[in-house]
Batch of 3 targets.
Target 1
Amino acid sequence: MEPNINYILEKLHNRTPKELAEIEKAYEFAKKAHKDQKRYSGEPYFVHPFEATKILAGIQVDTPTIIATLLHDVCEDGVATPKEITKKFGKEVAFLVEGVTKLGTVKYQGIERHVENLRKMLLSMAEDIRVIIIKIADRLHNMQTLNNVPKHKQERIALETLEVYAPLANRLGMGKFKGMLEDMAFKFIYTKEYKWLTENMTEAKQKQEIYLAKVKQKISEELKNNNIKIEKIDSRVKNLFSVYQKLLRKDMDLNRIYDIVAVRIITNSIEDCYATLGIIHRLWKPVPGKIKDYIALPKPNGYQSIHTTVFCINGKVTEFQIRTQKMHEEAENGIAAHWAYSIKGKPKEGGKVNKEISWISELREWQKESAGSHEFLDSLKIDLFKNRIFVFTPKGDVIDLPDGANPLDFAYNIHTDIGNHCSGAIVNNKMVSLDYPLQNGEICDILTNKNKKPTRTWLNLVKTNYAKNKIRSYLKRELGIEIVPAVNLQKIRNYEIKIITTNRIGVVKDILAMFHKNKINLSKLNTEASDKKRPITTIRFCTRNSSLADQTISNIKKVKGVKDVKKIQIIK
Ligand code: MN
């Protein structure tokens, strides 16, 4: 498609006239700068930055990112200087363009360089995530046009995509991008497998989709009967590479993968997510152990949804994913979805319920607090790995540790023997003590001495549970000292409760809200409809905190329509 600025502007009608004028200026600048350059396909080079920008305009990144994406290759190709960019587009845009240019100079050349590349990316990430977002869009378009690239380069680029960019997109919660990058790389790296899978999956997919049409109809009716209005119900198809990875664990038998297609229900509120879950479980028996509540406990990349697998129509094992519209956008576009929300105005959901530990909500809080554009910019320069540090071995391997970890943690992370015989450490060429708090990006060299042994004091020194466990097991094995970890004093208790209710619509929803309020995850939920007048809801959950469990149960007793709660405690 011939570049035309209208394709970009039509997605950005929420921007001010001043911003749009800047975008147009950047468009013309980049077009002119690249005018004598061609891509491998023979197309004008400008097609590339244009298409990359279109991708990001589609997910509503902020205006400086749009401008920087248009300009992302002008410095690398030497057709413009960073000075010029600063003068014409300001410091912020120049900073982003420079970030992308810097990353572009590092190419994947086997494992050694790959680590180096990864390291630079991670460190730059700490400075500004938008650089990574531009790189991801850049890579997405390069992968879309990889066919035109000389054969000997294709594999390197595809491998780098699979090993560096797809995981980064995933880390940023950009699920849609991650899936696209993986599948395009998959095609070039495992050509035969890709062909086999696309051929075989079409049939499996079609079968599943016909079946799911029935499931969707049934669940839609049932939701309607219960007055739960939903935003959307559709099916999500697992991306090819994910199916492939699962196949490797399932003897390459497609019939053993039940979630090629899953039902996805988009609701209007968190409460409705749980209510929908209740209805699904009332209709069909859940497969034990397959309920995952990522709303109460989001994945590390911020992903939120409820997943459940049930014995559905005709007893077929079927997966459901339930989430709100906002969670859906975040799952697809990740961190970028936040700009979309901040641009559109106030987030749709109150946010209070949602205030967990995840970095996503931290970012949201910062965005709310920082009204001025300058502060807003600062807030974007967050360290994505806020509570993590990356420390390197002298060989360049990356060790991922929690903030505050020391050389002893580092040593145990490399190898138990190295931990057990650790006698000292050199960090960035300086001797440090074993309790020295390591910093992001440092290079740590562990000194060992075969006469050195773990002592009890080491237990208080290390920050990671991993190292603690290793030290504990050494002390027990070699010295017969058994140290009971504090957490084990509080046993995890499993609770099962039976709740007898009236037939009031919404009663299950209100009960679930009590669990949600106390951040307790359910492992089982079942409502028996056999006795129409007095349905019995069985809920199983676990917690270390028995008073929290009691409090939740007493809250449930107060819910309108609840007649009786019977508690059965199962101690594991
Ligand atoms: Mn590029």
Note: DSSP finds 23 helices and 15 strands in the chain.
Target 2
Amino acid sequence: MNVTWVMGWPSGKETGSYLTLDLGGTNLRVCWVELHGREHDIKITQDKYKLTEEIKTGQAEQLWSFVAECLETFITKHNLSPNGNELIPFGFTFSYPAAQNFIDHGVLQTWTKGFDIDGVEGEDAASQLKLAMAKKDLPIRLVALINDTTGAMIASSYHDPETRIGAIFGTGCNAAYMERAGSIPKLKDLDIPADCELAINCEYGAFDNDHRVLPRTKYDVQIDNESPRPGEQAFEKLSAGYYMGEMLRLAIIDLHEQGLIFQEQDLMKTKVPYVLDTGFLSQIEDDPSTDNHVTRQCFNDSLGLQLSDNELILVKRLAHAIAARGARLCACGVAAICRKQHITSGHIAADGSVANKSPKFKARWAAAMAEVLDWPQERTTDPITLTSAEDGSGIGAAIIAAMTDDRAKRGDVVGIRDEKTRRLSKVNVL
Ligand code: GLC
């Protein structure tokens, strides 16, 4: 439950041009976002840069110098320069658990989603990036470090005032919501009015890390043991896209080793960890053919395996079980926030590959929400619905940076670093 220092909802009138960076998965995305103060009047220019496996498992210096290099390439290519004495304002979406004493600060608690870079955990990711930018003399001023869930919530509420929660159901699984300052014990020593709202990044991918609540299969245990951070992100490892293809792969290998399937076939291609992604699972689940030939083709193309009719039925059931469990757990996380906050209606703005591309996700998620929250059977509409989030890590980061700059101008400096403001010396929520 990380305090984000995003204080309340946007007005929809935020203006300004912001550089943003999205670091959280396969690609690194840099954007130039122009906010014109009207909800449908946003211009966005963006480029993507590939994050190699070497960087994802390398050293901190390598990561940050690569990030700074991408920023430099982007500002050169798009002719961005400081406005007079004003450095280019910058919002950084860092989609990992970060504890923040200020909005432009974030101590990485643990890498998640398969990242394993030495020298960042326990350190302030914002300072490390600032150092790398300074080494290149980049004319950039970091205004805010945010999480993708908070970005999704704020960007979506800019357009849709019914937004209550921002969620990511993708490579990882997490959500953010708005909380009253008075309900946050770790803020009690700061003189923030009790009814002032601020966003909380739940990081509930780490729920049940001590394995007291949720049952795990032997495949879940194996995924955890063989991951770079065993014991971390217990809930995420059961429900997020990054792990679902791997569950299917481990089940197939196990059934093969028990002599039950794919006898006389070469499983060499199946032996590669994480070779199957969620897209593979979705294709199986989405197979519209009556003779399952799409599924047959997928196994042939990706793994070089030929399936018998019975094997086809089995893999389809496995894919169903994995995806259905994931979607139902994703609903539990959101339902827990709704219960705690007494949210009984509104929109859950969701982004991520599972939410957007997994064919049956939405229906399964809604059915599980209904079960957990006891919605009446004979309803005509669901009181809480899933909506497609606006671009949180680009537009959301820009809006949050604009909100932060506006607050600073008004002298509302809660969670904004300013060595001269004595009030802030008390901030320490780590
Ligand atoms: C992981 C990260 C979290 C992020 C989520 C979705 O759970 O720890 O910060 O929000 O993935 O990307």
Note: The CA atoms of residues 170 and 354 lie 5 Å apart.
Target 3
Amino acid sequence: MTSIAALVLSGLDPTGGAGLLADVSIIKGEKVHAAGVPTALTVQTGKKVVSTRRIPRNFFRDSLLAQNDTFSIRGVKIGMVGSAGIVQEIYRFLRDLSPQWVVLDPVLFSSYGTPLISDGGLKLLKKIVPLCSLITPNWLELKILSSLFGIGGKKKDLLCRTLSEVSGTSVLLTGGQEKERGTDYLFHRGGMITFSGKAVRKGNFHGTGCALSSLILANLIKGHEIEKSIEVSKRKLEKHLLSGFRSSDGRWFMGG
Ligand code: PLP
């Protein structure tokens, strides 16, 4: 046994469908240990984020350092970050630790439109992007992130390519266009790779972005190249979706 671990920094969604609880269980399902520090607390049902609370910045920092004393952190997954103070602490931690892998799922809104990051947090996210190995935005998140770097436009491939070049980070545009759901595009080392996938049409699933980025991080830590990690992760995600179930309030949750 070794003390190699992934460190998950994301919001605590008590339903377990997204955020910290989901990320940790998915990474552990890949046989990689995952420690997790909450960036924010939320009250939510399957469909609705009812409210969010900040985590005190010093408390968050102490927890990051405690995990670093406990494990050899090989990769970090960042999801919902909440507030500017937390983004600043994540920036310092990544800068000082330089983990081998950093995957950022830039969670800006819930599927039902609740903002999950403050305005100040969003501005500072620009500092974190260049420290990441891979970012996994959907189309809306890509447009907003690009605008932080002064990049605009309606062409998805051009936006991804430019953001990747300017930030020095690989970009996986998730979700594809509406008619190609399940298809993702990777911009990596100047080239583009298309990953086709099955659109599992059972219903509106909770936490699929969280699950994909966590699966990719786990597979990078296991030693796969980025392309292979994405390919393997998409197949695993499809399995989780196919074994999903419907919650009492009508949202779909991934199976184990
Ligand atoms: N809560 C947390 C902590 C999340 O990280 C996310 C998404 O990443 C959500 C809620 C919203 O999930 P969804 O858009 O699937 O409803």
Note: The chain has eight helices and eleven strands.
